[in-house]
Design a protein that fits this description.
Blueprint (H helix, E strand, L loop, with lengths): L1 E5 L3 H8 L6 E3 L2 H7 L3 H11 L4 E4 L5 H12 L5 E6 L2 H12 L4 E6 L2 H9 L4 E4 L1 H6 L4 H15 L4 E4 L5 H9 L4 E4 L1 H6 L4 H17 L5
Parallel strand pairs: 1-2, 1-8, 2-3, 3-4, 4-5, 5-6, 6-7, 7-8
Helix pairs in contact: 1-3, 4-5, 6-8
Bound molecules: erythose-4-phosphate.
Length: 217
């Protein structure tokens, strides 16, 4: 499973790219506004530090304007993925941009039928929002499982990008459900490594080694 960071902050991303485990980045207008930085400058910086896909979201409503915005965004760097909303116009823009050879992430997916439409429109990624469904009392992970089944039934190549991830359990469940990608807030990525038995075990190993009085180097 690929791990993306859900952030528009180049500094925050740079620190975690150093782990060598980050496959891509997703941004959205809310995350971009939160940084207070120039949208284009931040995306250019992020695209330089991340080898994989960097999603940049359009803010237009009509298909033609989304396509124009998408083309402008793809000029930033070759690894920009245009992010469009799951509307009829968004799907039209998705089809046009993907037919032209661009990668497209269809976002704000909350149902299996929406995911089916996005795959038919040639989406590179579909972004089901797990956390927001959970917030509303639904089972967000069930959506991932159903999309996985539908895509496998028809051999759709669209990758399932589990989004709106809120905690480490979501990551484990998305991996078990067969999501191709999960996009994580930096705090969730950092939390993935923690286990108290790892810390306790390492402390004991080092203590025992010290008592032996030897050295490897
Ligand atoms: C995905 O691409 C979105 O940026 C993101 O995951 C939305 O998450 P939120 O529900 O925490 O805002």
């Amino acid at each position: 499973m690929k791990l993306f960071l859900d952030s528009a902050d180049p500094k925050e991303i740079e620190a975690l790219v150093a782990t060598g485990l980050i496959d891509g980045v997703t941004t959205n207008p809310t995350l971009a506004a939160k940084t207070g930085l120039s949208f284009f400058d931040s995306l250019a910086a992020i695209c330089k530090m991340v080898p994989g896909s960097v999603s940049a979201e359009v803010t237009a409503i009509t298909a033609n304007e989304m396509i124009a915005e998408g083309k402008k965004l793809t000029a930033i760097a070759p690894n920009i993925t245009v992010k469009v909303p799951l509307t009829w116009d968004g799907l039209r823009a998705c089809k046009t941009l993907s037919d032209a050879g661009h990668t497209v992430n269809v976002t704000l997916c909350f149902s299996p039928n929406q995911a089916l439409l996005a795959a038919k429109a040639g989406a590179t990624y579909i972004s089901p929002f797990v956390g927001r469904l959970d917030d509303g009392g639904h089972d967000g992970m069930e959506l991932i499982r159903e999309i996985r089944e539908i895509y496998d039934n028809y051999d759709f190549r669209t990758e399932i990008l589990a989004a709106s991830i809120r905690h480490a359990t979501h990551v484990r469940e998305a991996a078990l459900a067969g999501a191709d990608v999960a996009t994580l807030p930096p705090s969730v990525f950092k939390a993935l490594i923690h286990h108290p038995l790892t810390d306790k075990g390492l402390a004991a190993f080092l203590e025992d080694w010290k008592r032996g009085g030897q050295s490897i180097l």
